[in-house]
Amino acid sequence: MKNIRVWFNHWFSTAYHIIHLLKDDEYFNFVVVGSNTDSNCVYRAVCDEWVVEPKFDNSDKYVDYCLDFCKQHKIDVFAPRRNMLAISRRIAEFDAMNVLVLVERDYSLMSALFDKAKTYEMFTEAGIGYIPPHYVVKSVESYQEAYKRLKTEENRVCIKFTVDEGAVSFRVIDDRIRYSLTSNNGAKISYENSIKLLSEMEKFPSLIVMPYLSGPEVSVDCFAMPDGKHIAIPRYKSSTRSETIQFEEEILQTCQLFLDKFKLKCPCNLQFRYDHNTPYLLEVNTRMSGGTQLSCKATGVNIPNMAVNRLLGIEKQVSYNQKKRVVSFIETPVILE
Questions:
Q1: Labelling 30: which of 54, 120, 190, 208 has CA 20 to 30 A away?
Q2: 336 lies in a domain?
Q3: For residues 236 and 158, is the Cβ–Cβ distance under 8 A?
Q4: pLDDT at residue 179 in the model
Q5: What CATH number is associated with residue 275?
Q6: What gap in Å lies between CA 70 and CA 238, rounded to an integer?
Q7: Which pLDDT value is given to residue 184?
């Protein structure tokens, strides 16, 4: 079997499972080089080689580092998560080194999908799915005005940066919360505190203001197929560790239309949230999600392996039963050294 050197840079801890899935292959022996700024990141345990990354405050400097890393470590396939957008913009430099990169090559599309406001515009123009009512604001005054328009007695309002990952900036505006040492307010913040925090920011971020959608959250792991029979595996999340794999037609149709229209070549993830039985699109991630392994386990579809084989010129076919499944996970101790 031919050795193929694959680099995973600065991924989620669940890359531990994604790397296991990748290595389950009949054509290639995948030698995985892992890296992270955290020397004890758990997926180090399943990598064949490990490198501690330096920290960078500039994305172009980081791409320079990636190019040099690929040359030094003789990388055949690069599966990035950190600074994916900057890597896509300079994809030609990786091409020149004969390094295959698991990232969308259309930088303009990548850039638009990284911005939630632009994603909503694209879906609206294409007539795909349901987009929640929202305002994009760029000042405290416009934020206050949007809040007043959206806030009702029946619903709360939420905010998030238009460019964000992992819902870091997501906050629900809730004046009913009371702060104490014994309460866990999570991502909730009072309206007064939200204005204070935004007013104190040196540069006001581009911010989406929208009603808080109170129904189930659905994460759909997708992979477009050449024959149009695309893979779309919806995971309905819960307040526990169990997630339900359930193939609802409205969700599947939105994913199908998106993949037909924008023709992504790499795995992606669409996030939805229900409100009054309507699944609204929240965002599109142009990468494998942190829960990809749950979808793969429930259906027997090996998305990471299929994606890397595609880069290497092998198009694997798959069929799976759209059967409802409940999938969960447990903590597993891992010795790193």
A1: 54
A2: no
A3: no
A4: 58
A5: 3.30.470.20
A6: 40
A7: 59
